[in-house]
Design goal:
Metallo-beta-lactamase, Chain A; 7-stranded mixed β-sheet; 22% helix; alpha/beta; binds zinc ion; 217 residues; 6 helices; 14 strands
Length: 217
């Protein structure tokens, strides 16, 4: 599976399916693609209903015919706009052909529904995207329950984990590879990914991606 960092928390997974997670493109100064450039998508996953995560999700579904996957309330909103949608909630698994999407806890806020993280199994690889979250102890359970090949973790602080707490999350989650995200998009979430890399040390391979760059899982 190929995972591309689009900037902020927006990720594209390419394998059995083309999956976008939290595709905040319009208004994202780091974004390396736009809805105009996206012709194909199978699933668009939204971790929570904040503008910098839900972003262009509905527009991408509308343009490509992709299915919106999100917490129940967000999927209902997508359905009202005539989009294909699959709702789920914390603790649940959505098993579709050649992809499993697990919705896991996240500690954050949202005005509509709930905030969540997702664990995606596709092409024999397991990817964790926590959305926005602080460090929480149940990340140990996520790390025990899933054999995570690749984790994306926010390091920008203020609204999410910062470098120190994200490094602790790596200890809990035990991913093979980790990619920092949700930093340097705006002046209030500036962080140095090299500092994160040195704090993680030998716990995992830290892969620092510039927007538009990819890693395999
Ligand atoms: Zn948020």
């Amino acid at each position: 599976m190929k995972a591309t960092f689009i900037g902020h928390s927006a990720i594209k997974l390419e394998g059995a399916h083309i999956v976008y997670i939290d595709p905040f493109l319009t208004g994202n100064p780091l974004a390396t693609t736009s809805v105009d450039q996206i012709d194909k998508a199978d699933y668009v996953i939204v971790t929570h209903d904040h503008d910098d995560h839900k972003g262009d999700a509905f527009d991408i579904c509308n343009k490509t015919g992709a299915t919106l996957v999100g917490v129940h309330e967000v999927s209902v909103d997508a359905g009202k706009e005539g989009l294909k949608s699959e709702g789920m909630n914390i603790g649940g698994t959505l098993s579709l052909e050649n992809i499993n999407i697990h919705m896991v806890n996240a500690q954050h806020s949202t005005a509509n529904g709930h905030q969540a993280g997702v664990v995606i199994e596709m092409d024999g690889a397991t990817v964790y995207h926590p959305g926005d979250t602080g460090l929480f102890g149940d990340m140990k359970i996520i790390g025990e329950f899933f054999d995570i090949d690749l984790a994306f973790l926010p390091i920008g602080d203020r609204y999410t984990m910062g470098i120190r707490s994200a490094a602790k999350a790596v200890e809990y989650l035990k991913p093979k590879k980790v990619v920092p995200m949700h930093y340097n998009t705006f002046p209030i979430i500036m962080a140095d990914p090299q500092e994160f890399k040195s704090k993680v040390g030998a716990l995992a391979e830290v892969v620092i991606l510039n927007p538009g760059e990819s890693v395999s899982a």
